[in-house]
């Protein structure tokens, strides 16, 4: 007798904060490839960047889908995005942030959305600092993705009030 195990189901959101219009179909195709279903994004003007567009998509899928989405979008020039994945049984929540200048950053997240730093990463930051509080502050900022937050914040703010399309996969 074989035992079939399924991965926990979770959900999250893809925030495409800014992209040139030429990338829109490629982003849609990448999302469809990962999610295994047709995706329709409502592209709207991104006020924080002339000629740029933005979109949001809520998704439901197996745990780990957020990482696959973030990987599928990584590496394109002029694309700013964030992908969130909510915690699920046996799996931590996560947030991936990407900017053209900084690349991608991953942080585990608590149920309330706060970044969570595991003890090994924190011990490494303390060791690197060698007691220097300025170095430690810099290392903690790296762990929390402060530079990504700073760079993305104008694009996040510009998206306030934008529509969110909910995508649910049943079965």
Question: How is this fold's topology laid out?
Answer:
Blueprint: E1 9-20, H1 24-35, E2 44-45, E3 52-62, H2 65-73, E4 80-85, E5 93-99, E6 103-109, E7 115-116, H3 119-129, H4 133-144, H5 146-158, E8 165-166
Parallel strand pairs: 3-8
Antiparallel strand pairs: 1-3, 1-4, 2-3, 4-5, 5-6, 6-7
Helix pairs in contact: 1-2, 3-4
Number of strands: 8
Q: Largest sheet, described in full?
A: 8 strands, mixed
Strand content: 25-35%
Percentage of residues in helical conformation = 25-40%
Tell me, briefly, the overall form: flat
Terminal Cα separation, in Å?
A: 24 Å
Q: How many alpha or pi helices?
A: 5
Pairing-aware structural class of the strands and helices?
Answer: alpha+beta
* Radius of gyration computed on alpha carbons: 17 Å
Query: What is the mean pLDDT?
Result: 89
Show unreliable segments.
164-171
Series of secondary-structure elements, N-terminal to C-terminal: EHEEHEEEEHHHE
């Amino acid at each position: 007798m074989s035992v079939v195990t399924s991965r926990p189901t979770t959900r999250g959101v893809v925030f495409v904060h800014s992209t040139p219009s030429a990338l829109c179909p490629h982003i849609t195709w990448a999302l469809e490839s990962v999610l295994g279903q047709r995706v329709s994004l409502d592209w709207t003007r991104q006020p924080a960047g002339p000629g740029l567009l933005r979109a949001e998509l809520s998704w439901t899928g197996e745990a780990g889908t957020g990482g696959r989405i973030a990987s599928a979008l990584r590496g394109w020039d002029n694309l700013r995005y964030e992908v969130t994945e909510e915690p699920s049984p046996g799996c931590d929540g996560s947030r991936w942030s990407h900017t053209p200048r900084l690349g991608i950053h991953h942080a585990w997240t608590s149920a309330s959305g706060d970044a969570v730093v595991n003890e090994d990463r924190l011990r490494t930051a303390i060791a690197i600092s060698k007691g220097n509080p300025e170095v430690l502050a810099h290392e903690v900022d790296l762990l929390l993705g402060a530079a990504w937050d700073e760079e993305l914040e104008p694009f996040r703010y510009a998206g306030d009030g934008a529509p969110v399309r909910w995508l649910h996969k049943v079965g």
